[in-house]
Amino acid sequence: MGDLIGGRRKQLILVVDDKRMNTELLKELLGSRGYRTVAAQNAAAAEAEIRREAPDLILLDVVMPGKSGYDLCRELKEDSETRLIPIVMITGLTDREDRLKGIEAGADDFLTKPISSEELFARVSSLLKLKEFTDELETVDSVLCTLGLSVEARDPYTEGHCERLAQNAGDLGRYLGVEGECVVALQRGGYLHDLGKIAVPDEILKKGSDLTPAEWAIMKQHPVTGETICRPLKSLRLVLPIIRHHHEHSDGSGYPDGLRADEIPLLPRILQVVDIYDALRTARPYKPALSHEQAAVTMLAEARSGLWDEELVSEFFGMLDKRRQVA
Ligand SMILES: [Fe+2]
């Protein structure tokens, strides 16, 4: 309970330095301002502490026996689990080169020895505020993904669809060589593409087929509704086109904008291919599940008739074939 302030968790600072005297001094200074602290004398001990409880800020000495501060910093910034933890590197006063190396390793800020307590408190306080803000954004993001899953849960026949889509869309993106942030957008798109179905009544959603024109009109609003829900979040900027355009067709017969071929952005085209495959492979009350081979034949025929991007369909099956060979 002592770690909670007004119901919130008190933020934790990890101090990494091979000299125990330095870590003790920093812990004492930070403790005097009410911060929770933990210390590690080398990179391996720091990694163990991070696994035990992810800190909100790391103060990291550059010179340590074994793995250096730069290497530890680089590794933490490359790991999706830890990349958002701010890292302040502690360098010597005149070590300009140290700073350059630190910037290359992804450090967020620097403190020079001897450390002035005013400077320490100023850095720590501003970076912890930033971390709090990032945590809130992450929370909003994950709330939306959970909402996406709750939409899926309303339809018992689509169980696991979002997870499979997130996995396969991300894999296809990587296979095609798209940028890392686009791969992340594809994974999020797997969870969020049908979020707008939250506004579609159960009786329409569960009917699945044979919708009346009026019901169909409501169903067709879900990409725009989903985009509207997610638009305020800057972190979902690359996911918005996926949500809006995942029902467009290459021949212009899709919705909501009737885009054609290359007018449809690449990311929604990628998600669409994966989405169609998953739908074909899943049994519904009104249709049986197709085998992998049947799904391939169907999708290639539909692509040739003008529904999907033929090249992407071929690439997708190329990727699945490779995956099957490895398995
Ligand atoms: Fe949809």
- Which compounds are bound in this model? fe (ii) ion
Strand order of the largest sheet: 4-3-5-6-7
Q: Please give the number of β-strands.
A: 7
Q: What is the C-alpha radius of gyration, as a whole number of Å?
A: 25 Å
Question: Oligomeric form of this entry?
Answer: single chain
Helix content: 55-70%
How many helices? 14
Q: Termini separation (Å)?
A: 48 Å
Profile the largest sheet.
5 strands, parallel
Shape: elongated
Mean of the pLDDT scores? 89
Record the SSE blueprint:
Layout: E1 4-5, E2 8-9, E3 12-16, H1 20-32, E4 36-40, H2 43-52, E5 57-61, H3 69-78, E6 87-91, H4 96-105, E7 109-112, H5 117-153, H6 161-176, H7 180-192, H8 202-207, H9 213-219, H10 222-230, H11 240-245, H12 266-281, H13 292-304, H14 310-326
Parallel strand pairs: 3-4, 3-5, 5-6, 6-7
Antiparallel strand pairs: 1-2
This protein binds fe (ii) ion.
